[in-house]
Each structure stands twice: as C-alpha cells, then as structure tokens.
Amino acid sequence: MNLKHLIKEAKYYKKLDGNLRRIGIKFILAKTPLKKWVNSTSYILIYKKRIKKLSKKIRPKFLQIENTNICNARCIMCPHTSMKRKQKIMDQKKFEKTIKRVLKDYPSIKTIIITGFGEPLIDKEIVKKIKFINRLYPKLQIDIYTNASLLDKKIAEELLKTKLHKINFSINGTKKTYKKMMGLNYNKTVKNVLNFIKRRKELKKKWPLVNISLMILKENEKDVEEFQKFWINKADSVMIYPPSNWAGKQKINFAVQTPFKIKRWACNALWQYITIDVEGNLIMCCRDYESKIKLGNILNKNAKEIFEGKKINDIRKRQLEGDFSMPICNRCDNSFDSSLGWWVK
C-alpha cells in the first residue's frame, strides 16, 4: 500500500467513525509493520484482558438485517448458487417490526446494515425502508453493501435523498476479470457507480461515504494495482481484503494469507452483531448463509430473550474457553477477524 492510499484510508476511517479507532483495528494492525505484533506474546496478554472485560457486557452495536436473499450476481467466491433457503424479500411490515423490536431492547445499536446474503437493491422498497429508519431513529447510521449493477439513475437519486452513512460497492475486478469474478456487466456497473459519485458531488453531499471493495483471489490478484489506481481518486476508500470460505462451504483460491501469526479467538460478532435473516430469524452470524443455527425469531420473541438466551450464551462460553467445535464455527476461517475484532468497544 503506497503512502497516498495510506493517507486516504486514514481520512476515510476518521470520517467513518469520528475518531481513529477503526484504523487501529483492521488497518494499522493489518496493513502496516505493526501487523508483526498481532498475536505475539505481549499482544496476547493485552488482548486476553480486553476480551475478558468486554465479554461481560452484552451491548450490541450493529444490527445486520437481510432485506432480501435474492441476488443477480454469480460471484465465484460466494456460495449463493448452492443456497437452499427459499429466496424472497422481507416486506415492509416485517422489516419495521424487526427494527422496533431490536431497538427497544438494545438502544446500544449504532449502525444498521441493510444487507444479507443477497443484493439489497433487488428490493424495490429499500428506499422506503431506509426512510422509515431515518424518520424513527434519525441518529442511527445506515450502511449498505451492493454490487451496484442495479443502481440506475433513478435509484441513485432516491438513495441520495435519504440519510445513509456508508455505501460499499463490491466490484472485485477490472474490465479483464470482472465478468469472471461476478458474472455481471462491467461497463454498466462502473457507469452506475461513477454516476452516483458524480451526483453526490453535484448535490454537495458528504454522505454517504463511498467505499469500493475488491476481494483478492488468485483469479484477480494481478488486478490490484490497476483497480486501486482507477478508483483511488473517485471514491472515499478503496478496500482490498481476503474473502471468506463461508464456514468451509466455499472453495477459495486464496491469493493472500493472514498478515500475522494465526490464532483463533472468541468471535466478537457474538457480542457485537445482531444478524437477522429475511424470515426474521436471529442467526448466529452472517456466515451462516443457510440460517442453520437459528436462535429464535424476532417476529414472535423479543430481542433480549433471544440474544441473551441459553443457546447463544453456551456458544459464547465455549468460544471464550477456546472451543470452536460447534457447527459453522468449526470450519470458519475466522482467524483474521477474531484477532482484531475486540478492539471495537
């Protein structure tokens, strides 16, 4: 990573969180020479104390809600084509009920992520859903992760009229490799993203922050320099990161290894993230794309009853003891996230 990119990312994270904390989480500790310290003897001593302290409290900061599990892409690093769950869109009534129930029990939520195992813009009512949150919970940050292939001018204008915090455009390649990586039209997607950025500038809006991301695999590893060069002066951030193996369900041609010594820690997502699928099931985490570990349904149980229930508390306890033998966790490539995640308060 060159100095220009380093400075740009620092500014991005400062805007994103209002402080520099997140730079120390997945940036400085993964992208700078300090990565050599991660999971060293002294790091482990400090990290263990932090985990012990923070794991005593159940104060989730993120609500990830799957407005749809339908997707128009065919990404080679994603097992969507093998998903057996019924594909649908969460209707407005269920969406609103879900938000209200979670926020009633957990006012600690700071960010709502409207994305699951699908393309969120397939949902024709996504703008209505965002406006609902803006109206009832104006202080909440709203993030979206999209492949941008459906982001035409009409949708772009509607989204820019709402209060969004961040929008991530998952592009994952250049013109040479994009079709193979995602199965979509490169020119159309890039045109959509550039139009969105242009309109945001014309409207003199600082938000939402725009992040362009690339999951680096063997198939696109030669694209990285060209990708960064093309997007660095257009977006607020350009993120290059390793893919997930989706708890062992997806064969990945990894191009990069974890930037530090591998060690498995308790997953802070079990404390920090409430993840809800399109049916309203509160599931263990976003990598459980088949919703196999259902903890309870938010449409007929309150959030606290589920998120602090025996089933998930048993999983938390086992992970804190170093036991990752439970389903989903037992094949998850979590060493990167778990080694950094507990720096988030």
Q: What is the helix fraction of residues, given as a range? A: 25-40%
Strand order of the largest sheet: 6-5-4-3-2-1-7-8-9
Order of helices and strands: HHHHEHEHEHEHHEHEHEEEHHH
Stretches where pLDDT is under 50 for at least 5 consecutive residues are: none
Shape: globular
How far apart are the termini? 27 Å
Residue fraction in strands:
5-15%
- Quickly count the helices: 14
Radius of gyration: 19 Å
Give the rounded overall mean pLDDT.
Answer: 91
Core attributes:
alpha/beta; 37% helix; 345 residues; nine-stranded mixed β-sheet; 9 strands
Task: Please provide a written account of the structure.
The protein is an alpha/beta fold and 345 residues long. It is 37% helix and 12% strand. It is built from 14 helices and 9 strands. It has helices at 3-17, 21-26, 28-31, 41-54, 92-105, 126-136, 153-160, 178-182, 186-202, 224-231, 269-272, 303-307, 310-320, 335-340, and strands at 62-65, 111-114, 141-146, 166-170, 209-215, 237-241, 273-276, 281-283, 294-297. Strands 6-5-4-3-2-1-7-8-9 form a 9-stranded mixed beta sheet. Strand 5, helix 10 and strand 6 (237-241) form a beta-alpha-beta unit. Helix 5 runs parallel beside helix 6 (126-136) and helix 7 (153-160) packs parallel to helix 9 (186-202).
